[in-house]
Design a protein that fits this description.
2 copies of one chain form a homodimer. Chain A is α+β, with helices and mostly antiparallel strands. Chain A is built from 8 helices and 8 strands. In chain A, the strands form 2 sheets. Chain A has a 6-stranded antiparallel beta sheet with strand order 3-8-4-5-6-7. In chain A, strands 1-2 form a two-stranded antiparallel ribbon. The radius of gyration of chain A is 19 Å and the shape is globular. Chain A binds a DNA duplex (30 and 30 nucleotides) through helix 3.
Chain lengths: 222, 222
Amino acid sequence: MQTISTAEENYLKAIFTISEKEGKAAATNAIATALSTTAASVTDMLKRLAEKNLIAYEKYRGVLLTPAGERLATFLIRKHRLWEVFLVEKLGFSWDEVHDLAEQLEHIHGDALVERLDDFLGRPRFDPHGDPIPDAEGRWTYRSQLLLGALDAGKRGVITGVEDHSPAFLQYLDHMGLVLGAGITVLERFAYDQSLRVRADDGTERVLSEKVSQNLYVKPTV
Amino acid sequence: MQTISTAEENYLKAIFTISEKEGKAAATNAIATALSTTAASVTDMLKRLAEKNLIAYEKYRGVLLTPAGERLATFLIRKHRLWEVFLVEKLGFSWDEVHDLAEQLEHIHGDALVERLDDFLGRPRFDPHGDPIPDAEGRWTYRSQLLLGALDAGKRGVITGVEDHSPAFLQYLDHMGLVLGAGITVLERFAYDQSLRVRADDGTERVLSEKVSQNLYVKPTV
DNA sequence: ATATTTTTTTAGGTAAACCAAAATTATTTT
DNA sequence: AAAATAATTTTGGTTTACCTAAAAAAATAT
């Protein structure tokens, strides 16, 4: 069984994320940007990953993960998100503090560790940002959610996740009481700047910018 | 602030352990053996660690840690042992399974993580093998313990730790019911092979070899 | 005190993971 | 369809952390 380095794991995760979002092969430059490295370094690594049959790579055509590569990437995301749950639920970190630590912890190797951690945490299906956690077989939980910006006036939804994971956005949400699970009703949409007047379940009313409404996911309630 | 690689951290820990046990500067060969590498590689690394002022190195004279190096080594041991407590107390691993995982986890960087983990675990002073855990300021807890082999016939002690940390020994102890905190009374010492006849607090009597009695620590009870 | 053995260092080399600059290929514009 | 631009790869280099074999120093034996 071949071993995979931390650097290789980071490439697999980046390729997974980019090709998933773009719906096509990940470009060298996109990977370089995601990993804060140069295109030359990426080409270097792609050759090695192709050699290990973790990616399907054709020069100048971008890359896709092979089933083996996708399995590894999925498992890395599983580990990252389980550790995030641990950091928030057990150690008391806030959701804007856990990314860098989880980025390190996801590279710890040990199948038994992951499964025991999962049990210890009560087999959570979503991480502290509302992102789904693949199960031990790599299966994803799908959930019907839409951006708050897509919710019609008069409709209510429950906050289920974020698109922007930056600490600045997460801290803003904390400040506004917009936490996962909170109910929110769209009262009015201002055509001028696409801002929304919303009401929390406790009756508090606020105006949220388009930028906020485009980065917050809600599940509509009936 | 300079960064320290995982390889460098492993050298610091090895130097700490060897120089502490031997009571003198750690020899190149001893470090090579401890890290399963070659003397040439060790010399290589010693130059780099000396450059970073983490060790006091004189060619052909062995190495000692500087205060900065000792601080780092102590903190690594703190992290290693806290993670071992987590793995045993929270995730349900047994004491013979946790070393390799803790060996990875000790290299996770994050002061807040360590302090929160320490709190979460109830600020334990000893790890699952009875080894002391340095506190956040790097202070060690000392404990009066001696090898079971040094306990006179007729005396009773409580098991406080192990010298040999190998899974084989730990599993043997489990099998014999010789867990941390268990009481044990030496009934008789056989001069021929230095084996001991002992009695557990539940009345069970056993004979333990010299090898066992030289690898098990007890705290004498009055 | 010299010879032998052991330990340590040096010399020269490797692979992984990065880089800048130059060359090549693909894409877009005209 | 050519020219210009953008994306990608190649070339030649770096550092880290290893290695083997040879040389040098220290320790031990005679």
